[in-house]
Amino acid sequence: MGFDEPVARRETPGKSLGCVVGFFGIFLLAGLGFFAVFAVPAWRNLQARSWPEVPCEILASRVASHDGDDGDTYSVEVRYRYRVDDRAHVSERYDFFPGSTSGYEGKARVVERLPPGTRTVCYVDPADPTEAVLDRSFTAEYLFGLLPLAFVGVGAGGIVLTLVGARRGKARRPAGRAEWLPGPGGEPAAEASGGRHVLPAPSAGDAAPLVLEAKMSPLGRLVGTTIAAFFWNGIVGVFLWQLWQGWHEGSFDGCVAAFLVPFVLVGVLLLAGIPYQVLALFNPRPRLVLTPGRLELGSSAVLSWQFGGWPGRIRRLRLKLEGVEEASWSRGKGPPTARETFASYDLLDTHQPMEIASGSIQVRVPPETMHTFDTTDNQILWTLKLHGEIRFWPDVSEEIRVVVGPRRLAGAGFRDGGETR
C-alpha cells in the first residue's frame, strides 16, 4: 500500500447546520417581531390620512414621565371628546406611535397647545367611530421601526448563505475539501480512538481534475457587506437618533457626539462597500482547475485557469500559495489566539494579456513543509490566492482553500518530518 489511512475530525453536518440556521432564525424572528411593533402603527397612521375631520374638545392633557434604565422618557397623554351621528365619544389617543421617547420639551410644547377646554379637530375612522386620533402626521419617530430590519437582514441572509453553502458542500467532491491527518499505517476505515473518524485512503479519483471554488462568491460578499452595513448602522442609528432628539430639545451632549464619530465613520465605510461590491459583480470570473485534484508534499500538480467575461480589463494577475498555522488555547470554543504564515510561494505574476486570460502552471509544495492538519487546538491551512488588478474598478480577488496531503512514498506510506510511518 502506498498510503496510510488519513484521519479527519468527526463532523455532524446536520446538527451543525441546524444550530447555525437556528441562530440566524432567532435574529429573523426577533427582527420581524420588533418590526411588527412599529410597522402596524405606521400602517394605521397612513390609513388615518383618509379619515374625516371631526370637531373635538380637549378634556385633559399632560406630559407623562416613564422611568427607564438609560434615563426618563416622555409621552403625551390627552383625553378629548367628539361627536359622531349625535353620539358622544371619548378617546385618549394622541398619535399611533407606540411607547415613549426622550425629549421633554417637545412633548411639553404639544401639551401647551392643547390645554383643557381647547376646541380643535380629531380624525375619526368612518368604519368605527370609536377609533380616533389627534395627530396623524408621519413624524421621524416612525422611522425608528426600520431598525429591526437590520436583524431581519442578518437572520434571512445568514439562513440563505448557510443553506446555499451546505448545498454546495454536498455537491462538492469530498476529496477536494477533506481535512487530512496522518493516521497509523494500515488502520481500517472505521471508528478510531480519540473521538475521530477514519476516512478511506485516497483513491484513483484523486487523480481526476478538481474545480476549485472560492470561499465566497461576489454575490455572497455583496450580501454579507449589505447585512453588516445595515446591522452596524442600525445600532449606531439608535444612538444618533437619541443625540438628535437631545439637540432638538436643547440638551445636546458633545461628549457622546465625539464618542460616536469613529462608529459613524465605520458605518460610512460599510455603506461605501455596498456599491463597491455591486461593481465587483461585473468582474471577470476565474475558473481554476487542479490536476490531480489533491496536492501532496513533494509532488507536482498542474493548476490551470480561464477567465469568463472580459479578462482584457485585468492589467496584472498574481497567484500565490500560502500556508498558515492557527493555534488556539480555548479548546475550539473561540477564535484562534495565534495565526502565523509559515509558507508563501509566488506561483505567477504576469502583465501579459494572453497569459492572464488563460494558462497553466506547475505547482509543487516542498516536501520539508507541513501538510494540511486539523485538530481541536491546531490547524495547518493552505490557501490559493488570486489577485487581478483592474484600473479604476474593484480588483478580482479570490481565496480558495486547498488540501495538501502528506508525502507519499511508493510501498512505504507517508513520510512526514523525516520519519516513515
Give structural notes.
There is one protein chain. With 421 residues, the chain is α+β, with helices and mostly antiparallel strands. The protein has helices at 13-47, 104-113, 148-171, 218-248, 254-280, 353-357; strands at residues 6-9, 53-66, 73-84, 87-91, 119-125, 128-133, 181-182, 196-198, 210-212, 285-291, 295-296, 300-308, 314-327, 338-350, 358-364, 373-374, 378-390, 396-402, 404-405, 407-409, 413-416, 419-420. It has a domain at 52-135. Helices cover 31% and strands 33% of the residues. Helix 1 packs antiparallel against helix 3, helix 3 runs antiparallel to helix 4 (218-248) and helix 4 runs antiparallel to helix 5.
Write a brief structural summary:
By secondary structure, the chain is of the alpha+beta class.
**Largest sheet features:** 5 strands, antiparallel
- Encode the helix/strand succession as letters: EHEEEHEEHEEEHHEEEEEHEEEEEEEE
- Alpha-carbon distance between the termini? 12 Å
β-strand amount: 25-35%
Main attributes of the structure:
6 helices, five-stranded antiparallel sheet, disordered C terminus, 421 residues
Topology:
Blueprint: E1 6-9, H1 13-47, E2 53-66, E3 73-84, E4 87-91, H2 104-113, E5 119-125, E6 128-133, H3 148-171, E7 181-182, E8 196-198, E9 210-212, H4 218-248, H5 254-280, E10 285-291, E11 295-296, E12 300-308, E13 314-327, E14 338-350, H6 353-357, E15 358-364, E16 373-374, E17 378-390, E18 396-402, E19 404-405, E20 407-409, E21 413-416, E22 419-420
Parallel strand pairs: 11-19
Antiparallel strand pairs: 1-7, 1-8, 2-3, 2-5, 3-4, 5-6, 9-10, 10-12, 12-15, 13-14, 13-17, 16-17, 17-18, 20-21, 21-22
Helix pairs in contact: 1-3, 3-4, 4-5
